[in-house]
Amino acid sequence: MSFSEKILNWYVQNKRQLPWRNTTDPYKIWLSEIMLQQTRVAQGIPYYEKFVKKYPTVQDMAVASEQEILKLWQGLGYYSRARNMHHTARKVTEEMDGKFPQTYEGLIKLKGVGDYTASAIASISFGQLEPVVDGNVYRVLARYFGVDTPINSGPGIKYFKNLARELMPDENIRDYNQGLMEFGAIQCAPKKPYCLHCPLNDSCVALQKNLIASLPAKLKNNSIKKRYFNYLVPLDPKSNTRLHKREGKGIWQNLYEFPLIESPKELNINELKELMPKEAPFADLTEVIAFNADNIVHKLSHQHLYTRFWICRTSSEIADGITPAELEDYPVPVLIADFIKTLKISYF
C-alpha cells in the first residue's frame, strides 16, 4: 500500500468532525484556513462560527467596516490576517463578481493568501492537484523520510514542497490533503506521537533511528526584542477615558489602545512624569499611580512587551471621553482587553 493510500485509509477512520469539513464553498474554506494560521483548531472553531453567522457570504464581509471585523477577530492575534481578509473580501466582491479564483495561480494573488492557503483552497474547494505543506505536513514528511533539512530555510521549503508533490495521488486530492494535515495534527503529533499504532511505523525513518524528538529541524531564531510599554489611562471624575488608534505598520495596526509611552527601559513614576504629555487629557492631573506593580510580560512571536498601566486621575472632564460601557465597542489587543476587565472590577 502506498503512502497516500495509507493516509487516505487513516483519514476515513479518524477525521474530526469540524464545521468546515462538510463544505467545498471556497469562501468558508478560505475563512477557515486564514483563521487557522498560527491558531489551534480548538481556538479557531468558535471564531469561525461567529464569522460565518455574522457574514454568511463574502459579500456580507465585504460591506462590513474594518473596525467591526477587528472587534469580532479580537483575541485571535496576528491582526494583519483580519485586515488582509477584509481587503480580499472586498476585492473578490467588487472585482471578481463574488467568486474566488479556482486555480492556485489566481488564489495566490489575493492579499493574505500564501502558498499553503492557495494550495488548500484550490485542492479542497476545486479538486486541483496541488500539494499542501503546513506545519503538520512538514512534521510527517520530515519524520517519515528522516529529512533533517530545516523546514524554515529556503532549501527546506523547496525540498518539502517537491516531496509533497511527488507523494500526492492523482485522485481524491481533497481528502488526501486534509488527511495528511489531520494525520500530523493527531497521529504524528509534535509531542508524544502515537507511533505504536501508526500505519506508517513499519517504514518511518525517525522511528527506526530514534529521531522523533529532533525532527522536523528548524533554524533557531534568537532575536527576541524587549520593549517597554507604559500605558497612560486617563480617568476623569465620571470615569471617562481616552483611546487612540494605532497607526503605521507595526504590531496591532488599526487597533485601539490607551495613550502610550514606549521607553528603552523600565521607568519609575518620576521618570514617567517627566515624559508625560502636558496637553489634554493630562493637563490637570490630580494623581498618577501604577495599576500593576510588576511588569506584565506579553509575548509575541519576535518581541516581548514589558507593560505597566498607569492610572492618571484628572480634575476636569475629558472632552469626547469614552465611557466605561463604550470601551467594549473598540477592537483592542488582548493585552488591553484583559486590562480593561480588571480596570472595571477595580474602578468602575
Automatic annotation (TrEMBL):
<feature type="domain" description="HhH-GPD">
    <location>
        <begin position="35"/>
        <end position="186"/>
    </location>
</feature>
<dbReference type="GO" id="GO:0051539">
    <property type="term" value="F:4 iron, 4 sulfur cluster binding"/>
</dbReference>
<dbReference type="InterPro" id="IPR023170">
    <property type="entry name" value="HhH_base_excis_C"/>
</dbReference>
<dbReference type="InterPro" id="IPR005760">
    <property type="entry name" value="A/G_AdeGlyc_MutY"/>
</dbReference>
<keyword id="KW-0227">DNA damage</keyword>
<dbReference type="Pfam" id="PF14815">
    <property type="entry name" value="NUDIX_4"/>
</dbReference>
<keyword id="KW-0378">Hydrolase</keyword>
<keyword id="KW-0234">DNA repair</keyword>
<dbReference type="InterPro" id="IPR044298">
    <property type="entry name" value="MIG/MutY"/>
</dbReference>
<dbReference type="InterPro" id="IPR011257">
    <property type="entry name" value="DNA_glycosylase"/>
</dbReference>
<keyword id="KW-0411">Iron-sulfur</keyword>
<dbReference type="InterPro" id="IPR000445">
    <property type="entry name" value="HhH_motif"/>
</dbReference>
<keyword id="KW-0408">Iron</keyword>
<keyword id="KW-0326">Glycosidase</keyword>
<keyword id="KW-0004">4Fe-4S</keyword>
<keyword id="KW-0479">Metal-binding</keyword>
<dbReference type="GO" id="GO:0006284">
    <property type="term" value="P:base-excision repair"/>
</dbReference>
<dbReference type="GO" id="GO:0032357">
    <property type="term" value="F:oxidized purine DNA binding"/>
</dbReference>
<protein>
    <recommendedName>
        <fullName>Adenine DNA glycosylase</fullName>
        <ecNumber>3.2.2.31</ecNumber>
    </recommendedName>
</protein>
<dbReference type="GO" id="GO:0034039">
    <property type="term" value="F:8-oxo-7,8-dihydroguanine DNA N-glycosylase activity"/>
</dbReference>
<comment type="function">
    <text>Adenine glycosylase active on G-A mispairs. MutY also corrects error-prone DNA synthesis past GO lesions which are due to the oxidatively damaged form of guanine: 7,8-dihydro-8-oxoguanine (8-oxo-dGTP).</text>
</comment>
<dbReference type="GO" id="GO:0046872">
    <property type="term" value="F:metal ion binding"/>
</dbReference>
<dbReference type="GO" id="GO:0006298">
    <property type="term" value="P:mismatch repair"/>
</dbReference>
<dbReference type="Pfam" id="PF00633">
    <property type="entry name" value="HHH"/>
</dbReference>
<dbReference type="InterPro" id="IPR015797">
    <property type="entry name" value="NUDIX_hydrolase-like_dom_sf"/>
</dbReference>
<dbReference type="Pfam" id="PF00730">
    <property type="entry name" value="HhH-GPD"/>
</dbReference>
<dbReference type="InterPro" id="IPR003265">
    <property type="entry name" value="HhH-GPD_domain"/>
</dbReference>
<dbReference type="GO" id="GO:0035485">
    <property type="term" value="F:adenine/guanine mispair binding"/>
</dbReference>
<dbReference type="InterPro" id="IPR029119">
    <property type="entry name" value="MutY_C"/>
</dbReference>
<comment type="similarity">
    <text>Belongs to the Nth/MutY family.</text>
</comment>
<dbReference type="GO" id="GO:0000701">
    <property type="term" value="F:purine-specific mismatch base pair DNA N-glycosylase activity"/>
</dbReference>
